Amino acid sequence: MAEYEIFTDATSDLPPEVIDSLGIKVIPMDFEMDGEIYSHYPDERELDSKSFYKMAEEGVTITTTQITPVRFIEYFTPILKEGKDILYICFSSGLSGTYGSSEIAILNLKEDYPDRKIMSIDSLCASSGEGLLVYLAAKEKENGKTIEELYDWVERNRLNICHWYKVDDLFHLKRGGRISSVAATFGTALNIKPLLNMDNDGKLQLIEKLRGTKTCEHHMINKLKDNYLPDKYNTIIISHADCEHEAVLLEQMLKKEFEVDEIIHSKIGPIIGAHSGKGTLLINFYGKQRE
Fold this sequence. Notes:
single chain; 291 residues; alpha/beta; Rossmann fold; Hypothetical Protein Tm841, Chain: A,domain 3; 2 domains; six-stranded mixed sheet; four-stranded parallel sheet; 11 helices; DegV domain-containing protein; lipid binding; DegV_C
């Protein structure tokens, strides 16, 4: 059996220490702020998240881009030259064209490396939900799964990765076309906090509009109660967009209700944060169903 590497992209929002401990390869993603282009890496080497959210709050224009076939080829080629195979777990096709871009790159690479297995799979996940899927896949690899077995595992389990988001800034949803300007203005005045999740097509959907952060967090815990499958996978990821205090409080609430083997904290990076805004709080877990 040939050796293989697991790749993902920077939208997975996994902490660098987790990435390093499991040997996961992460492809950076680009974003532009006021005409300057940055690449987002897990270690935030070009722009740290605090600076990003500060600039975003100041009204700087932000655009994000998908990974190009050229960048995929740049990152995959050295691994293929080593005689290793590749499994790439991709940012949801419901939110980005990155998956299609990876398929173009793979078609090109297979001409030069016909004996290598180069596989791309759509995670139908985003941010640390994608991160949790990659994390669990890496653990399954450690347990001895072949690349084909792991591809099948990802395909079977990706819709069990539950995402529940609390969004603080309604105007980010307005800019994304999810709510109207009037709803954003009145919702902000009334301290409305939208609760969103990922549907089975890998798209964000607005589930409820709740008043206040604490109400939203209690709903997130209730969603976990309804769907959580700790006997199967008992790792939970809590991620935040420059609101670490809220993430810590959510963990404390969680620990009062459940025994959890592992809670991983992560930061929501610029690629996701450009669309969700500062104050976004996200909990990911393995559950029965997403909705």
